[in-house]
Amino acid sequence: MPTLLSNRPEMSGLPFVDKTRIPAHIAVIMDGNGRWAKSRRLPRIFGHRAGIASVREIVRTCGELGVKALTLYAFSAENWTRPTAEIHALMRLLEEYIVREAPELQKNRVRLRAIGRVEALPAGARKKLAEAIEATAPNKGLTLVLALNYGGRQEIVDACNRALQAGHKKIDEKTLARFLDAPDCPAPDLLIRTSGEMRLSNFLLWECAYTELYVTKTLWPDFRKSHLYEAIAEYQRRERRFGGI
After folding, report:
1. Is there a catalytic annotation at residue 149?
2. pTM attached to this predicted model
3. Cα separations (Å) of 84 from 6, 139, 201?
4. What is the spatial distance between Cα 28 and Cα 70, in angstroms, rounded to a whole number?
5. Is 202 designated active site?
6. Which domains are present in the chain?
């Protein structure tokens, strides 16, 4: 019989989840921080800061469930159009998150990685990110991928250019996949989008060709373990066909 991770006293109220069918790779579009703050008449940065608690809980829960990879859409290439003060605050939050969470990442054997044009990030954020990636590289637990200055179209363009620079005259799907930002990371099984918006927002366009999509109206700062369980439970109710009948 499959092992169920809910209906136990310590997990009361959580949806049923079959431990033998946990998605190997979960991707998340963490949307709704601004609306969360606005509803409380607070500056947007308060919503971004509140969202860090959700990141912490979801990273921890994915590790407990045996998820192999978790990719978080942390800062898109389009986010540079936001007010300068908000961008600076976001970069400071990124540095804070890396420094504060480093001990827990190591404790839980989480391996940190990044995708996107990270070379365009401020020097301080790049330095902290590089240090954390190097320090956690030997870890064998959950792989946490932060999408930073990331755009799905940019990634495909960059992959094509890398393939051409490597000497390829003709690029097919197999070749292009080898030059993506994280070619060794499997495509997401499940993509979660918070805040109810029904779009991909230029996130993992190549990788999510056959990914199961789950949209919740819950804003990211309110997203917790029970919401993740519900998303996984819904994923497990579906039959994946990968374009077949």
Report:
1. no
2. 0.92
3. 44, 36, 21
4. 8
5. no
6. 20-153+186-232 (3.40.1180.10)
